[in-house]
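Q: What changes when iron/sulfur cluster is included in the input?
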Amino acid sequence: MLTWLKKQKEQILSPILDWVQIEVTTHCNAECIYCPHTFAREDWLSAHFPLTLFHDLLPSLSHTNLVFLQGWGEPLLHPDIFEMVRLCKNQGKKVGFTTNGMLLNKKNIHTIVDLQVDILGVNFAGTTPSSHNRIRKGTDFNAVVAALEYLQRIKAERKIRKPAVHLAYIMLASNFDELSRITRLANKVGAEQVVASNLTLIQEPQLFQEPLFNNPQRLNEYSRTLVIIKKEAAANNILFAYRDPALNETSCVCPENVCQACVINVAGEVGPCVFTNPILSGSSGKAADKKVLTIFQGQPIPLETFSFGNIKNTSLTRIWGSKRYWEFRNLFDPETRLLPREILAGMPPSCQTCYKRMVSS
Ligand code: SF4
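A: The predicted holo structure follows.
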C-alpha cells in the first residue's frame, strides 16, 4: 500500500520535461577517433542501465514527453533496449535513440518499426565510405546506408512514417567538404532531419585542428557553406540544424535545453548533459574514480563531472526540485535576472570550459 501511494505521489508530482535522456549503455562496438570511449578505453566503465532501475524511474517520467535512450554507447547493444522502448510506448511516450547503425539488421529494423519508435538518429562522419569509415572506425558507411534504405522500403510498404530518421553528422575540418552532399544522402536514406554538430570535446593533441572553430581562417567559408546547405535541405523538405562554429567565450547560452530536460547516466547520476558525467572506473573498478581529460585552450584539463543526485537513492522528482538544481537552471534560464558575469562565475567548472556553450550563440 505504501509503495503504491509513493508511486502515485511520484506520478503526480513528477516534473514537466520536454525530454529525459537515459544513458542505457556505455558499451560500444565502434572506436570513433574523437570519442572519449576510444581515448579512455582502458579506464572506461562499460555497463548497461539496469532494467529494474528503468522500471523504478518510470513513475517520475509521467509528465515527460520524450524519452531518448542515449549516452556514451551504442543503445542497440543493451539486451533489454526493446523492452525499455515497449515500457515507454505503453505509457504513451515518444521514444528515440541514436545508433551507429552497425546493428541495424533486418530483425532489429522490423522490431523498431513494430514498436513504433518515433525517432531513429543515425551517426555519420562523412558522405563517402573513406571519410566515414576512417573517422567512425568499426562502422561501415555502405552497410549503414543499405540498412537505412531497407528501413525506408519497409516504411513505404507499410505506408508508415515512423521512425523518423535523423542523421547526426559530426562536423570536422577533415570532413567538412563532404557535408555539401548531405542533402543527397538524406534523400537517399529517407531522412527528415540532419543535425550537424561541432566537435566540442577535444581529447588528443592530434585532433586539435579538427574542431571547425580551431580553423579561424576558414570560419567565413564554413558559415557561408552552412547557410547554403540549410537552404538546399529546406528545398528538399529536410530540416538542417547546426550552430555556427565561431567561438564566443562569454556566451551564457547552453544549447542543451537544460531548463526543460535532463540526462541520467548509466550509473543513475542526473545531470544537464552527457559532458558532465562520462563514467570511468579506474583501478578500483568503482565509478568516477578517474576523470576524462579534455584539451581546453591548448591545455589538457580534467573534465570535472557533476551530478545533482542519483536516482538509485533519490527520485528524479526530488532531484529536479532540489535547490542546487534550481540554482543551476537559473543560470541558463533565458529570463534570468542574473548579469552575464554572475552567470559565468556561477557555472560549474565543466560549463566554464565547455566549447559547446561557446558555439551556441
Ligand atoms: S554548458 Fe556545456 S557542460 Fe554545461 S550543461 Fe551546457 S553542454 Fe553541458
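Observations recorded in class: The radius of gyration is 20 Å.
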